[in-house]
């Protein structure tokens, strides 16, 4: 069985241009026979009448109407049927159609059945027959059938494709037939019928049909598939509803037939056509549900509309007496005596509830009857039509306006009611708490921050200090969250069951200043290497990010166990999540996670300013250093720790440095202590789980909750995460506060509070030792032999470690203590001052290349900078070049800004004190932002003032800091140092034209290859290295396994994470480990806003800055692992790709 007879298709192509010449020798019934049988076969397959023949026949029918074959099959058959219809008697032709569809007896009323399947088949065949009649009469866009060109045909195809939905250029090309030259003709017509919408950061450019061409839409376009017909109909109804129009999809006004084919329109007004329409409408009017369908009525209405439009067109061109087309008369008269004329039946079915969707179309058809009637009676049809059409539209608009007005009035009354209730509640509260309001000015003695007098702005400014004796109070905010698994709400409390944020811990080189250098985490002792001291080049850090979704600890444990049980049986599950490393997908957003960060509530605090002022008179920086020294020495004596003596420690030297009169061992406790915070058992357990994960991932080691480095890694991930967030905000030009996504803000706060509670489970002696080792960087007299120099440490990591570990000094043997709020304020203040001064020195020592500025009037700040620089130069043996004070000030302000921004984020999350308003805006200039940062951190806006205020304390420190051998080597150029501010990393710059990359790849030759084969050149977007991927010549060993060049490169360049551009395939490859990766669209688009994977279309490609910026954000925000997991979760992986060989 075949639906394709080549000679038959060729015959229709020959006859179409001049049918009168050819048909003189042919029997038109025979001409129509094969074409009609093919169309009927397709209709029967659609009606599921050939199910026993299997998929082979379904496939034949599919390709019979598919874009690849329809030009020579389906379209030629339609043309042949139009040729036959133009020469045959209309009634004879329709009889032939009814016979071939086996519906003659059905419409004649001589057969009936109660078999549901048979009735369904008859209904489907009736739908297909009516559809065929619509096509034969209405599809005139064929050269020779009407006076049109091939360009007009292509335009109509494009219009109908775009009426389904906006489409990309490549989708349009695939949906259009090709000519002999494999061209579609799209380029010549697309700008005439469509508007191009440029793509955003995702998706592709789309063409949308112009509004003036929407009138050409035909819902029964013969090249639509069944699904396309449904989509187009729904899309156009939705559009008309949005425009406030009815949902009637009227048949378009077709072009006129050529004279040879003009007889086809007589099909619409012949007796059998009217009989068919009457029969279909009568079944609906009699409400016989098994004998009709809505699709049949829709097609019948379309045919009636075609007939009325044809009659209207003829009446407008000639007089009524000359018009032989009389469909409207037959539709009114035939069957009128029994009330079964087409017109009367339309009036009846108009009110059927089952035809509510066709009500607008029925109204339009009845209006067209009136228009045609007026034209025949020589009255004004346009006036009557406008009046008829205006009434329903106006009534609908009036109803809509009235409904909107009613809703607006209801909303207004509701708002007024709520405001009245709030006002009444406020008055009642004031009345019931009158004494409280009267006594409020006197409450300052209790440490309240509200002053009885003074300016409101000054008051707000005083509150916006996070460090020191003037710090603001921590608000007592209740935080009630909902678990995404059990949907139960719970307040975050220290003694409540644990709640946590789903989070992902990963190693990162986003901030590195020395790409490709991964530090060793294995050394003789925990205090002599990374991770205790983060190198200033930040070559690898541990980042903890969260999707922001909250779960109960118990709910998470149940979910995680269920994931482990179900995932083990899934095909290639290891490509998505690594169960051995504790990975899982967030239940809600499917982000890749490997831990849960417990939520620790901020402790409400009302600061005692009077007590702070009294303590401040005694607890100066020198005195604070002496107290710390005595406390550390005493704790070491109690613990009988002789490590410092065996390593040549000189802690006793602190007496000579800061004068006589060392304080007592326990004098640190006299400045204020309080009982340590207590947490529920579940929170304590989750703290251990999270800390162990951070330690395991950050150091790539086995889980060990007793390792002394666990607490260090918690502090490090806190510091690195804050630095990464500050880097994102700065690169995107966003303000420091108020612009973070909720998930980033929640994750950062949770990480800071989690890191601050590491003293709960860790050994206090271990944390005290970490604090002593870190303090040795700032106070050289307390340092060990292997303590790094000031130039070898990232001071923000040091700041975080010192601030979070100093509470361990307050521990006693018999009682758990922690510093009071006032003691903590002074601890934070003195640590921040010491670290800030050390960072200023870092900047000065690394800025030897600063050019001298011109002469001018020196400010006080510039004189202080010059004085400090002179002292530093003297301590370094005059190795520093002469630099003006103005250059120094500018260099220090620029270099210290990232540190201060990170410190502000850290102390905001630690204390909860709100920052000043200037830090919420980017419109404030840099000087005002610097002043706001310094004010928030209790620093002088002139940071050089710190050295003047603490001259006696800092002078010996400066001498020892500058006297380090590392500093001398750096100034002599023997070792490389980090410049401040650090360079903000971005993806490499790519050429605008993709052909430049292709040329670059064509000249690439693998250095390890002996042949001339070009392999697969792949570009690392982190560093710009060109690699030879998927080739045996570049295999290397990584942890005793053979890996490809990209995998080996990602291990050193991105700590296992990679982003590569495969140049010949024009696609991005994202890598997260040796076993996981995914492809991602390249940031190169053609002129139509589309990517070209594997360069299949061959259009010129140009770089899209927005998409490349999105790729950069994907990397900077540490979302590569998340993107890989999501893409692998969507794609059903049947065959695992060996990513390690890439």
**Largest sheet: number of strands, sense, barrel closure:** 5 strands, antiparallel
Low-confidence stretches: 382-396, 434-461, 522-528, 641-661
Average pLDDT level: 82
User: What spatial form do the alpha-carbon principal axes imply?
Assistant: elongated
Q: What gyration radius follows from the Cα positions, in whole Å?
A: 41 Å
Our count of helices gives 42
Biggest sheet strand line-up: 13-12-16-17-18
Span between N and C termini?
50 Å
Q: Specify the structural class.
A: alpha+beta
Structure summary, number of beta strands: 20
What percent of residues are in strands?
5-15%
Helix content: 40-55%
Overview of this protein structure:
By secondary structure, the protein is of the alpha+beta class. 49% of the residues lie in helices and 7% in strands. A five-stranded antiparallel beta sheet has the order 13-12-16-17-18. The protein has a three-stranded antiparallel beta sheet with strand order 6-5-9. A hairpin with a 2-residue loop joins β14 (1036-1038) and β15 (1041-1043). α1 crosses α5. The protein is elongated and about 120 Å long. 42% of the residues are buried.
């Amino acid at each position: 069985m075949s639906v394709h007879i080549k000679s038959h298709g060729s015959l229709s192509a020959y006859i179409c241009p001049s049918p009168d010449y050819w048909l003189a020798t042919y029997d038109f019934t025979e001409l129509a026979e094969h074409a009609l049988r093919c169309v009927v076969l397709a209709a029967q397959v659609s009606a599921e009448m050939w199910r026993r023949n299997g998929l082979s026949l379904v496939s034949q029918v599919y390709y019979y109407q598919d874009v690849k074959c329809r030009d020579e099959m389906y379209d030629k058959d339609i043309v042949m049927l139009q040729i036959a219809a133009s020469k045959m008697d209309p009634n004879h032709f329709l009889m032939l159609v009814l016979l071939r569809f086996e519906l003659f007896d059905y419409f004649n009323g001589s057969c009936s059945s109660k078999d549901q399947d048979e009735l369904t088949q008859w209904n489907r065949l009736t739908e297909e027959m009516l559809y065929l009649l619509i096509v034969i009469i209405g599809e005139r866009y064929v050269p020779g059938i009407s006076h049109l060109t091939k360009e007009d045909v292509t335009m109509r195809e494009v219009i109908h494709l775009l009426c389904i939905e906006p489409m990309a250029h490549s989708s349009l090309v695939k949906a259009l037939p090709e000519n002999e030259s494999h061209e579609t003709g799209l380029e010549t017509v697309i700008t005439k019928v469509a508007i191009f919408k440029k793509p955003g950061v995702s998706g592709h450019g789309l063409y949308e049909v112009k509004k003036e061409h929407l009138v050409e839409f035909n819902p029964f376009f013969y090249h639509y598939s069944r699904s396309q017909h449904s989509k187009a109909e729904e899309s156009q109804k939705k559009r008309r509803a949005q425009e406030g129009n009815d949902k009637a999809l009227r048949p378009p006004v077709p072009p006129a037939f050529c004279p040879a084919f003009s007889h086809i329109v007589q099909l619409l007004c012949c007796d059998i056509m009217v009989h068919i329409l009457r029969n279909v409408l009568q079944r609906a009017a009699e409400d016989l549900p098994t004998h009709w369908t809505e699709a049949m009525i829709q097609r019948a209405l379309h045919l009636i509309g075609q007939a009325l439009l044809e009659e209207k067109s003829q009446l407008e061109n000639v007089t009524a007496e000359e018009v032989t087309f009389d469909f409207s008369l037959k539709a009114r008269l035939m069957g009128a005596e029994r009330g079964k004329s087409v017109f009367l039946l339309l009036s009846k079915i108009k009110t059927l509830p089952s035809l509510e969707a066709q009500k607008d179309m029925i109204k339009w058809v009845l209006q067209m009857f009136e228009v045609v009637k007026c034209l025949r009676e020589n009255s004004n049809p346009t006036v009557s039509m406008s009046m008829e059409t205006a009434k329903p539209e106006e009534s609908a608009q009036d109803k809509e306006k009235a409904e909107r007005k009613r809703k607006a009035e209801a909303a207004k009354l509701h708002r007024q009611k709520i405001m009245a209730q709030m006002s009444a509640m406020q008055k009642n509260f004031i009345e019931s708490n009158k004494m409280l309001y009267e006594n409020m000015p006197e409450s300052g003695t209790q440490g309240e921050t509200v002053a009885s007098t003074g300016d409101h702005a000054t008051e707000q400014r005083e509150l916006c200090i996070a460090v020191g004796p003037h710090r603001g109070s921590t608000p007592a905010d209740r935080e009630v969250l909902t678990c995404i698994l059990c949907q139960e709400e719970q307040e975050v409390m220290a003694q409540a069951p644990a709640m946590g944020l789903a989070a992902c811990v990963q190693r990162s080189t986003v901030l590195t200043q020395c790409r490709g250098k991964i530090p060793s985490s294995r050394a003789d002792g925990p205090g002599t290497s990374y991770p205790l001291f983060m190198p200033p080049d930040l070559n690898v850090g541990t980042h903890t990010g969260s999707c922001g979704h909250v779960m109960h600890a118990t709910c998470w444990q149940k979910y995680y166990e269920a994931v482990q049980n179900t995932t083990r049986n899934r095909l290639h599950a290891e490509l998505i999540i690594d169960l051995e490393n504790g990975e899982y997908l967030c239940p809600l957003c499917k982000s890749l996670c490997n831990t849960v960060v417990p939520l620790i509530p901020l402790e409400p605090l009302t600061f005692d300013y009077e007590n702070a002022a009294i303590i401040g008179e005694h607890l100066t920086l020198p005195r604070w250093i002496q107290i710390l020294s005595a406390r550390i020495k005493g704790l070491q004596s109690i613990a009988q720790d002789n490590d410092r003596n065996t390593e040549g420690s000189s802690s006793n030297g602190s007496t000579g440095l800061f004068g006589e009169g060392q304080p007592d061992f326990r004098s640190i406790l006299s400045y204020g202590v309080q009982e340590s915070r207590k947490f529920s058992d579940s929170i304590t357990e989750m703290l251990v789980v999270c800390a162990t994960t951070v330690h395991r991932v950050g150091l790539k080691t086995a889980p060990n909750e007793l390792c002394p480095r666990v607490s260090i890694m918690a502090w490090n991930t806190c510091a690195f995460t804050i630095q990464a967030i500050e880097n994102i905000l700065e690169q995107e030009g966003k303000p420091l506060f108020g612009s973070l996504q909720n998930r980033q803000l929640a994750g950062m706060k949770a990480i800071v509070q989690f890191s601050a509670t590491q003293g709960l489970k860790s050994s206090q002696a271990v944390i005290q030792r970490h604090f002593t080792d870190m303090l040795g960087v700032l106070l050289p007299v307390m340092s060990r032999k292997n303590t790094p120099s000031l130039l070898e440490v990232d001071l923000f990591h040091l700041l975080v470690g010192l601030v979070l570990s100093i509470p361990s000094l307050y521990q006693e043997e018999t009682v758990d203590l922690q510093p009071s709020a006032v003691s903590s304020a002074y601890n934070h203040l003195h640590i921040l001052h010491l670290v800030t001064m050390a960072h200023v020195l870092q900047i000065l020592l690394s800025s030897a290349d600063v050019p001298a500025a011109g002469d001018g009037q020196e400010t006080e700040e510039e004189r202080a900078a010059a004085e400090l620089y002179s002292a530093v130069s003297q301590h370094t043996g005059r190795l520093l070049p002469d630099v003006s004070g103005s250059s120094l000030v500018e260099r220090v302000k620029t270099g210290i800004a990232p540190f201060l921004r990170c410190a502000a984020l850290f102390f905001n999350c630690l204390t909860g004190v709100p920052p000043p308003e200037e830090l919420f805006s980017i419109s404030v200039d840099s000087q005002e932002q610097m002043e706001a940062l310094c004010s928030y951190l209790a620093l002088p806006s002139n940071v050089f003032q710190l050295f003047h205020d603490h001259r006696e304390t800092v002078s010996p420190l400066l001498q020892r800091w500058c006297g380090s051998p590392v500093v001398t080597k750096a100034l002599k150029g023997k070792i490389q140092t980090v410049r401040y501010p650090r360079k903000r990393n971005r993806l490499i710059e790519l050429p605008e034209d993709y052909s430049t990359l292709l040329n670059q790849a064509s000249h690439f030759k693998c250095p390890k290859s002996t042949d001339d084969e070009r392999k697969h050149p792949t570009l690392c977007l982190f560093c710009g290295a060109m690699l030879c991927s998927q080739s045996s010549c570049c295999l290397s060993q990584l942890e005793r396994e053979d890996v490809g060049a990209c995998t080996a490169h990602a291990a050193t360049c991105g700590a296992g994470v990679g982003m590569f551009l495969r140049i010949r395939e024009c696609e991005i490859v994202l890598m997260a480990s040796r076993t996981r990766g995914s492809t991602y669209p390249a940031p190169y688009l053609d002129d139509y806003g589309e990517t070209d994977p594997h360069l299949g279309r061959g259009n010129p490609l140009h770089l899209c800055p927005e998409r490349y910026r999105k790729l950069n954000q994907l990397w900077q925000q540490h979302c590569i692992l998340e993107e890989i997991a999501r893409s692998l979760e969507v794609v059903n992986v049947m065959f695992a790709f060996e990513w390690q060989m890439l």
